[in-house]
User: Fold CCD34 protein from Myiagra hebetior.
Amino acid sequence: MNIQLEKMKQNQECERRKRTAEEKHKEWVQKKREEERREMKRKLSKEMAEKATRELEKMQLQEKADIKYKEWLKKKRAEEAEKKKKEKAELQEKRTRSEKIFKEWLQNARNKPQPALNGYGFPHGKSTGLY
Assistant:
């Protein structure tokens, strides 16, 4: 009887150890899965933060580029307007000078005596001979 009782105790002890080992194994597996899940979340949030940072930097860079382009375009248009204004002023000055010179020429042309008319190949209106 003692031997059977001893065997039963051993069997119960063995089963209890088995259950305890299984429970510990289940707990360990659950902890491991939870740890892996937390690690994945951490990695994902880190990647998302990096991606957001890159996007923000990209947007800031694009804004800077847009601002610089607008400044360049404004400067270029101002230069073109100045160039056109200068060309127009030069053209106006040239036109004024030309008109002044023409008026002077016209005034001088009225005062000049008219040259004597010559016939075709006849100086002083007379035939000089053969060429």
